[in-house]
Amino acid sequence: MQAIWRDDDAQKLIFHTDRGSTYTARRFTRLCQKMGIRQSMGRVGSCFDNAAAEAFFSSLEWEVLSRNEFHTIMEAQAVVLEWCYGFYNHQRRHSAIGMMSPVDYENTAVTEPEAA
């Protein structure tokens, strides 16, 4: 799994992955269709298609998983979700987007008019 996000214009969930057999299997594809999830996959043999997602998971592993000991799956889920939605998207600054948080970057992109 590489990334999941909401595309508000399409009102669908987009699930971006590599082209691994798990994600290309007919059964998985049908499940996504049934649940209204649009699949998105990177090009074959292109590591750059998933660079942002790879960076995200590297940060998750370094900043959360390696620094915590979880006793239950629910505990791990709670910590990871809090990190993703409480810190990573709203507070953590990212060099690829001008040292802004993803939420600040998206809000700026939505509110600023395009240059002519």
List keywords for this structure.
116 residues, alpha+beta, 3-stranded mixed sheet, 5 helices, 45% helix
- Percent helix, as a range, is 40-55%
Gross morphology: globular
Q: What pattern of helices and strands is seen along the backbone?
A: EEHHEHHH
- What strand order characterises the main sheet? 1-2-3
Kindly report the oligomeric state of this protein: single chain
Let me know the average pLDDT: 83
Question: How many helix segments?
Answer: 5
Radius of gyration: 16 Å
Low-confidence stretches: none
Question: Overview of this structure, please?
Answer:
With 116 residues, this protein is of the alpha+beta class. The chain folds into two domains: 1-45; 64-116, no CATH class. 45% of the residues lie in helices and 14% in strands. The chain has a three-stranded mixed sheet with strand order 1-2-3. A hairpin with a 4-residue loop joins strand 1 (3-7) and strand 2. The longest helix has 16 residues, at 73-88. The chain is globular and about 40 Å long. It starts with a strand and ends in a 5-residue tail after the last helix.
